[in-house]
Write a structure and sequence with these properties.
The protein has 245 residues and is mainly α. Helices cover 76% and strands 0% of the residues. α4 (61-75) runs parallel beside α9 (135-161), α7 packs across α13 and α9 (135-161) crosses α10. The two termini are 26 Å apart.
């Protein structure tokens, strides 16, 4: 257990010793600041709706840019960098299982993802000075944000373990999360016969519900299932590499 915690700490701190980590922090801070400015502009309107600003944030394009674009950039280095630097073999010979290695990198990436969103935690308290904020939908919105984000982290981990090139890992990760995002949008197309099934994986629709304070456990089960599948496959890829070695 101590080895796993040490690995999580190592992976998490690596973000702050990497130029990519600081670029992601800066980019997310700029996007978060832009969202806050838009929230203030909404409140300066003639008839602001109480509690609505935070609910709107979870459906804006800036929100989805952070979720869809930044996510694969977080995970791209997790295994691809280890392969490129030739340190993966050393890591796999350490007294820690392949499952623990994958989980450690996954937890570190998920923690860094949450860090990128942390500035927005102040928004409800700052905005409450101007309009009443219903904290129920806010908490539900962040639950959805982190649920979807953690699923994206697992997808990105799987993509990173498949290649030794970080750029390729990022592109694979972006393609995968975009596929997950766009698949649900086909539920609005009448010509799609299985639109009912796709409606259950419509991430945009999920966030609309979360932003209203509606927490559907089926959404959380979906995120957990996809995450577990991707992490399981990542472990299998690592183990196959060990067998080949």
């Amino acid at each position: 257990m101590t080895a796993v915690v040490a690995q999580v700490r190592r992976e998490f701190l690596a973000f702050f010793f990497s130029p990519v980590g600081w670029v992601l922090i800066a980019a997310s801070a700029i996007l978060n600041a832009a969202m806050f400015v838009l929230l203030l502009e909404f409140l300066s309107g003639p008839n602001p709706v109480p509690g609505a600003p935070m609910q709107m944030m979870f459906s804006w394009i800036l929100y989805w840019i952070i979720a869809l674009v930044v996510s694969p950039l977080i995970t791209m280095r997790s295994f691809a960098e280890e392969k490129h630097a030739g340190t993966l073999e050393t890591l796999l010979t350490a007294p820690i299982s392949d499952t623990a290695v994958v989980l450690a990198k996954f937890v570190a990436c998920a923690a860094f993802y949450i860090v990128l969103w942390s500035p927005t935690f102040l928004y409800p308290f700052l905005l409450s000075r101007h309009t009443p904020i219903d904290m129920g939908p806010v908490f539900a919105g962040y639950l959805g944000t982190f649920g979807i984000g953690i699923m994206f982290m697992a997808v990105g981990i799987l993509c990173s373990v498949l290649t030794r090139n970080q750029i390729v890992a990022a592109l694979l990760g972006f393609g995968a999360v975009m596929l997950l995002f766009l698949a649900g949008l086909f539920s609005f197309t009448p010509e799609v016969s299985f639109g009912g099934l796709l409606s259950h994986i419509n991430l945009l629709g999920h966030m609309e519900d979360f932003a209203k304070g509606v927490v559907d456990t089926r959404y959380l089960v979906y995120y957990a299932s996809v995450s577990a599948l991707c992490l399981f496959l990542a472990v299998q890829v690592l183990q196959s590499r060990r067998w080949r070695g």
